[in-house]
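This part of the workshop introduces the protein records we will be handling. A record pairs a protein's sequence with a compact description of its fold. Comparing a sequence with its tokens is the quickest way to learn the format. The record below serves as our worked example for the rest of this section:
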Amino acid sequence: MSYAIGQFGWSLLINIIGTWLVYFYLPPKDAGLPILITDVAILGILNTIGIIASLGRLWDAVTDPLVANYSDQLDTRWGRRVPLLAAGAFPSALFCFLIFFPPDSIVSSKNLVWLVIMMVAFYFFLTTYVTPYFALIPELGHTANERLNISTYISVTYFLGIAIAAQAPVIWNSLIADESLGLTKVEAVQYTLGGLSFLAMVCMYFPVFAVDEKKYCQSEPSTVPFKEAMVLTFKNKSFLFFALSDLAYFLSTMVLQTGLIYYITVLLGKEESLVGLLMIVLGVFSFLLYPGVNIMARKYGKKKLVLGGFFIFFCVFCFCSVMGMDWLPIPKVAQGYIVVLVAAIPMAILGILPNAILADIAELDALKTGSQREGLFYAGRTLMQKMGQTLGILIFSSLLLLGRDTSNPTGIRATGPAAAFFCLVAIYLFSKYKEKETLEEIDRIKGA
């Protein structure tokens, strides 16, 4: 349980950035917030906030394998992973907090420089925490079923992070309503996100103090040089197809996460606080589906469920492109509930199963090569996750140049088909993964 609470902490941080970064710096015209960074198109198709978010993620992509390899080779009396969790928790929360405290309250070059520096620092320390955190899954889970259970637990806390991050408008609106505080909306947003960052930090330290790595984990420090370890990891075909499909999946879901506030406030014309309520519905419905997903994965296999999840997401994104249109015979609020209720199905599936699948891939690789490189496998996954999220923010923010308000929502509507296309790409790539052969080979080698 303490291990899963750590996931809630870093999930809260990453979803604060994913949900509110673009909204805070480049808000809709009627949001009551000032624009803090220029939205001038660069090369005709890109905007500043998208480029900055991309640079932060690209920096993150560079540090991922370095941190993973360092963790794989680390040998301390506390283990390979826990010391890095302790080192990354506080600064990642601190820099998440500082991202929303730019030096100027209007568009300025200072804000631009500030955001770049804070994003680079945030992603570096988050990587320091997240990469070794995921590497603990195959080390704490000694069988496929144990790994599936761990993946289920951390999926629950991951979606709690999404849900709590989405409650930010409820919190800042209550602060604004308290006239004795005398806060502007900008200040209320800043204090809210700062408080959530502090909560995240506290939760991230739970596994640091509760997980006795030497006692519970079966692992040995890797002695394979970094370059050779990277080559071996990405030569694994099962991992390669898995990782590329993950990139396409995270790209599409980042569009949904970043776009939901725009879908609700612009396309449906509803209050921003509805986003928080919808995220609670999404999280609760997903939780209710978790036991079923766990049971069905054991009975029918993980691959079939994942492919089904990608297809359902494809349908959701197609619907997002027509939300709020007059010809749609569905009340506008009901449209929002339809999106989250249907999206809860693939969110439950894809929140649980990919980590369990990757643990299977990493275990088979270790059995065949004799080298335990769990850190690099999970770094590869987080690399693809972050690249997908980077491209998602870049694509979303660039499409906003086509129109992001009620008088011209063209850019917001265009994000739906863009995300749907990448769901199809994910289906094609993941269909190449051979689940049955992987599990059979693990059993054969262990039984030999």
About this structure: The chain has 18 helices and no strands. The two ends are 34 Å apart (CA to CA). The mean pLDDT is 81. Residues 311 and 423 are 7 Å apart (CA to CA).
